[in-house]
Amino acid sequence: MLSTGLDKINELRTIKNEYSARSYNQSPKLTYPLDSCEFSTQRQEEMPKNRVLTMIKAFFVKEKKEYPLPEPIVINYTPNAKAIGSIPAANRYVDWDNARILKNLNPVTLKKKELPKDKKLLEISNFVYPSGSIMATTSLDDCIATGKLLQCAGVAIVDKTKNQQTLLHCYPGDSQEDVEALLKHVTDNAGKDLDITIITGAYDSCEDTISCLVDTLKKLSPNNKIKFANFSKDVRIFNRAVVLENGKLTCCTNDELENNTAKITNPLGKISYIKAPYNS
Questions:
Q1: What is the Cα–Cα distance from 95 to 61, expressed in whole angstroms?
Q2: DSSP annotation string for 234-266
Q3: 34, 130, 175, 189: which could form a disulfide with 81 (CB 3.0–4.6 Å)?
Q4: Alpha carbon distances (Å) from 32 to 11, 123, 178, 199, 235
Q5: Who's near 52: CB < 8 A, 6+ residues apart?
Q6: What is the SS3 assignment for 102?
Q7: CB under 8 Å to 224, separation ≥6 — which residues?
Q8: Contact (Cβ atoms closer than 8 angstroms) between residue 181 and residue 93
């Protein structure tokens, strides 16, 4: 009986040493008959393996943190400030033969895409009260759109770290100081790694608007590159609308945006804008 007990102890020691030396994923199966001692050994082998797998999964699966959207704001206009359009800019950004961003700025071309049919669409419009420069921020899975970018320009700011996207329709009748206050509200609440894109309008005077936006964004977000976007050639110059959804920019026609029955235009409480004489 003593010999049998020593044999069993030695066998268990062998199993323990073998277990310590091998990797969890390549553990050979035990082959000796099942008894209470073996059951205890198997439990010791299974528990560390499960615990290690749980720790590995927890390491690679990052916690999804929710960030609140910045509250919409109303900026009181700056009296006696010069309107963006009253300060002519040098022709640095737009080729006015076809109302497109200059090639040397390496603009991307927005793909033409149908508006989503399974969700509400938030439209920001310079042609509906409160008019002027209007901005909205949503989560990435929502959809924002704006059209009729004539002397106006668009800006998209995507913050993937906070699951947020912003679209601004910038009106050159406002001052650079007031537009800066709008954009600052976003950049102050954003992460460090932003995707910023400027979209051109159709009129020659949009050059002034873009110049203002570039200067302002370089000041507010100097560590982020400013990109530019052109519309697809499938959309005519005076019938262009831009769409921001899932952090990506696409385009459609103004007609499609106007006829969309799911859109909500300039909902107060969800948009930021400038309170000025033209909308008082």
A1: 47
A2: TS-GGGEEEEEETTEEEEEEHHHHHT-TTEEES
A3: 175
A4: 10, 72, 81, 73, 75
A5: 24
A6: coil
A7: 193, 194, 195, 196, 217
A8: no
- Sole residue written with tokens 């800006």: 155
- Identify which of 148, 177, 154 has the alpha carbon closest to the alpha carbon of residue 254: 148
Question: Which strands sit side by side in the sheet containing 164-170, from one edge to the other?
Answer: 74-76, 271-275, 134-139, 164-170, 153-159, 195-199, 226-230, 108-109
3-state secondary structure of 227: strand
8 Å CB contact between 228 and 214: no
- Taking the C-alpha atoms of residue 57 and residue 232, their distance in angstroms, rounded to an integer, is 43
What pLDDT digit, counting tens, does each position of 185-232 carry? 999 988 889 999 999 999 988 999 999 999 999 999 999 999 999 999
- Reading the block at residue 228, the tokens are 């530019």
Give the sign of the dihedral formed by CA 126, CA 130, CA 132, CA 137: negative
| Residue owning tokens 């022709």 | 91
Tokens of 267: 């909902």
Provide the whole-model pTM: 0.77
